[in-house]
Amino acid sequence: MRRPDGLSGRQRVLGVVGFFMRRYGYPVAPLVIDMILGPMAEEQRLAAEDLATREREAISIEAQVTEGAHRSGRQED
Predict the structure, then answer these.
(1) Is 3 helix (H, G, I), strand (E, B) or coil?
(2) How far is Cα 5 from Cα 25, in angstroms, rounded to an integer?
(3) 19-47 pLDDT, tens digit each
(4) Which residues contact 22 (CB under 8 A, 6 or more apart)?
(5) What is the pLDDT of residue 32?
(6) Using CB atoms within 10 A of its CB, is residue 18 exposed (0-12), middle (13-18) or buried (19+)?
(7) Full-model pTM
(8) Count of CB atoms within 10 A of residue 12's CB?
(9) Dihedral in degrees, nearest 10, Cα atoms 32, 8, 40, 43
């Protein structure tokens, strides 16, 4: 939710953090890069995890089908 001054809570917090980083000699650029690239990296990580999960499920189902086909093909004496 935006406040009357136009800043969101996140922007206000990051501004304060940036102020103290600058005051105590820490570089601010990594904070800015994280603000820009962080959400995109998180989205890509979640997509990769989703893809890996789907692949594991497909392999598991394929293995179960193959095992079932082998069992049904055997004849018991």
Answers:
(1) coil
(2) 28
(3) 999 999 999 888 888 888 888 888 999 99
(4) 28
(5) 84
(6) middle
(7) 0.47
(8) 12
(9) 150
